[in-house]
Amino acid sequence: ETKCKPWKGAIDSHGYGRTMFEGKWQPAHRVLWVKQFGPLSNGFVLDHLCRARSCVNLKHLEPVTTRDNTLR
């Protein structure tokens, strides 16, 4: 599927979906990624290729370094 899947729950002040996971509020896209693929390597974050911060479509996410994410 190529369409964005906007998070239906809580949204933080930066536009990212938030959900409770392991006893604390965390970014919804990251929680779904970890459940599907496992934890990210150290120094990596998830970049929304679609640029929609509330999107939780795993096909729209790419693990990249913090530097690459900032440059994009």
Write up what this structure looks like:
The chain is α+β, with helices and mostly antiparallel strands and 72 residues long. It has two helices and five strands. The strands form two sheets. A three-stranded antiparallel beta sheet has the order 1-2-3. The radius of gyration is 12 Å and the shape is globular.
**What is the string of helix and strand elements?**
EEEHEEH
Number of separate strands: 5
Largest sheet, strands/sense/barrel? 3 strands, antiparallel
Structural class: alpha+beta
Q: Report the oligomer.
A: single chain
Helical residues, percent: 10-25%
* Terminal CA distance: 23 Å
Shape: globular
Total of helices: 2
Share of β-strand residues = 25-35%
How do the strands of the widest beta sheet line up side by side?
1-2-3
List unreliable stretches of 5+ residues.
none
Q: Over all CA atoms, what is the radius of gyration?
A: 12 Å
| Overall average pLDDT | 95
Keywords, separated by commas or semicolons:
72 residues; alpha+beta; 3-stranded antiparallel beta sheet; two-stranded antiparallel sheet; 2 helices; 5 strands; globular
